[in-house]
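Tutorial, part two.
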Amino acid sequence: MFENIDWLINTVKSIRLNDVIDILLVATLIYYLLKFIIGTRGWQILIGLFFLLSLWLVAKILHLTTIEWIFDNLWSIGIFILIVVFQPEIRRLLAKLGERGLFRYSLLSRKKAIDEIIRAATFLAERKIGALIVFERNIELENYTEGCVRLNAEISLELLISIFTPQTPLHDGAVIIRDREIVSARCFLPLTINPNIPKNIGTRHRAGIGITEETDAVALIVSEERGEISLAIDGKLHRNLDPLTLRNMLIKALEIEKPDFFDNLLKKLKRRQKNEKA
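Running the prediction step on this input gives:
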């Protein structure tokens, strides 16, 4: 027993500052990678890989020769398989790294994007122009962008108004928003089959509710008949919202003000530098 305690004490003493930094960096990298793919198709693939790994371990324990041979040969080309399987996630991660870095969240610019969308929705509602804007959260909406018009454009009041103006090529269907970007327009979404939906709710509202039932997306709907703004979250429709209520609900639903450790750390460092200069 005392030998184990001595071994533990010696192990702790042998840990260097570099080792601690190394472990923290690796743990942080794993955390952000998991956070990035949770809720996407990549997360489901990762679960499948863990299942295969468990099967391989069982084969090792039970000495199942054929399965062992298959997996031993499979792991030798595993890195190439992972690159092919996770190609969309890797491409998206690299794009985000180039855009804002791994630990940086542009909360201010995301709030500005939300304000642009609210201004556009208010403009359209006052003129009774229908609109359907879908915000992607954790689950990717790539399956719903097939056959749509790819835009990959920065969010702006003018662009959103132009898209939903009647008689324009893109006005029919939904717009999909990812972060601060309009990904696609003229997207057609699944309709809800909930029998409890009021009969006076039109197709646009049913599509907005439907996408929030099948995914974790948030849908903003502008009524063409009543000129009111609604928000669909988790299959529930919140109707006749004023701009301030709509903004608060969007910020909360999209977790724009969710605190981030590295943001707080940067703010503290900047505050300390200002105090030192003062």
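The first strand starts at residue 131 and ends at 135. In part three we will examine how such features are distributed along the chain.
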